[in-house]
Write a sequence for this structure.
């Protein structure tokens, strides 16, 4: 099993939509047994993929190890893709981890999932707190969505430095320009300054994910944004296979 953590220090960068689309790609394009683990208390990924799911227990009970993940995992409408939903009980996740004092709790839970899934995609809560540290310990690869700008590239460099300073053998960080509008000079300049970096265009089709309760590739397979997601996934899958 390999774990892809989709992380951002702040909101508004399309983190959740990217996580959902990467999980779809793992399940559909690579035919991997896949799980999207929603750790963001806003539960947007859960709303997209499992809007009718009603959890028998609060999402935090999995973190507390009061219940096994299987009790809360639900199937989506996509073959090979399940979701471990989030809810409002995760709002104090950093505090919960601090109370538990188990630095590898997410990693240990991930080990329980290894026999059932080939790929786990984690929609991380924003911010670089205790939860992020937990995710980093268990991640194979970190996908970092950025709005194209000089400041966003600086934040990517800061994350890399943070990982290098905090622990040896930290997971690789893969930045991706998300919600790109090539009509904006700042976006074009940032792309020119980072040749070879993945680019996901701004698209109204992505905004429809919450209304359609589906990844964009499920209802717009030939759209440019879906082609960009496919290209990014191929790179991600290659890295997950070799890391």
């Amino acid at each position: 099993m390999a774990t892809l953590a989709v992380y951002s220090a702040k909101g508004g960068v399309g983190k959740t939509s990217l996580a959902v689309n990467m999980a779809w790609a793992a399940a559909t394009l690579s035919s991997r047994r896949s799980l999207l683990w929603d750790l963001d208390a806003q539960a947007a990924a859960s709303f997209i993929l499992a809007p009718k799911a009603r959890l028998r227990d609060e999402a935090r009970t999995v973190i507390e190890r009061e219940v096994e993940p299987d009790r809360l995992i639900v199937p989506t409408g996509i073959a090979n893709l399940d979701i471990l939903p989030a809810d409002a009980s995760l709002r104090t996740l950093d505090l919960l981890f601090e109370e538990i004092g188990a630095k590898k709790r997410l990693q240990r839970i991930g080990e329980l999932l290894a026999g059932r899934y080939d790929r786990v995609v984690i929609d991380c809560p924003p911010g670089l707190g205790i939860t992020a540290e937990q995710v980093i310990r268990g991640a194979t690869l970190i996908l970092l969505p950025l709005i194209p700008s000089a400041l966003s590239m600086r934040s990517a460099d800061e994350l890399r430095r943070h990982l290098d300073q905090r622990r040896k053998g930290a997971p690789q960080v893969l930045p991706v320009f998300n919600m790109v509008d090539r009509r904006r000079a700042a976006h074009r300049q940032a792309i020119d300054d980072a040749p070879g970096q993945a680019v996901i265009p701004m698209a109204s089709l992505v905004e429809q994910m919450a209304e359609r309760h589906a990844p964009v590739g499920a209802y717009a397979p030939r759209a440019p944004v879906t082609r960009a997601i496919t290209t990014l996934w191929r790179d991600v899958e290659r890295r997950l296979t070799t890391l």
User: Anything to note?
Assistant: The longest strand covers residues 172-180. Residues 224-242 form the longest helix (19 residues). The CA atoms of residues 60 and 89 lie 6 Å apart.
